[in-house]
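DATA SHEET
Item: assembly model
Revision: 1
Owner: S.N.
Input lines:
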Amino acid sequence: ETGVTQTPRHLVMGMTNKKSLKCEQHLGHNAMYWYKQSAKKPLELMFVYNFKEQTENNSVPSRFSPECPNSSHLFLHLHTLQPEDSALYLCASSQDIDRNYEQYFGPGTRLTVT
Amino acid sequence: QKEVEQDPGPLSVPEGAIVSLNCTYSNSAFQYFMWYRQYSRKGPELLMYTYSSGNKEDGRFTAQVDKSSKYISLFIRDSQPSDSATYLCAMSRTGTASKLTFGTGTRLQVTL
């Protein structure tokens, strides 16, 4: 595997379900990011981790819970989501947060909340 | 006023044309300027980044930054159907607390 991978690629979940999104980067980077991409809106930064430490929570509702066990892996735990949370969730990485201008993205998880 | 403005398109051009994609911004503190290409159902792919003003060239792609006008451009020469995608501009300040601010993207269609 190369670059940034994300699983699953597609996810349909009910409002009462609990699910997790997984991201793995094979670039030796130390910073990882979660973004939300909705139609006709700019990418919204959700969370930032640098050397496994969370450095930013961009006012994200608590039904989204990130986890970064090491510099290569990032999870987004989902719980009691709303239909408006349906979007493409993108993971990205960079060498560290000082080099956030050079981010590499995964293919995303297309999430549908029913 | 949005921090970054980008015409959503779609922009349709014939194969071989020179394409000009643009973004304007309002925050004069931005120092890094990025262009990403995103194919349908894929994640964004970094094409190039530029620091401060000036030009940067990579193959058929040229990025220009005019900080005095708060205007950035991406030129694609000899456009190909494989260039059909959405192009996102992004920018950031320097410093560890900075984050990327994205435009909404311009959809480009290169026709045969």
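QC remark: Chain B has a mean pLDDT of 93.
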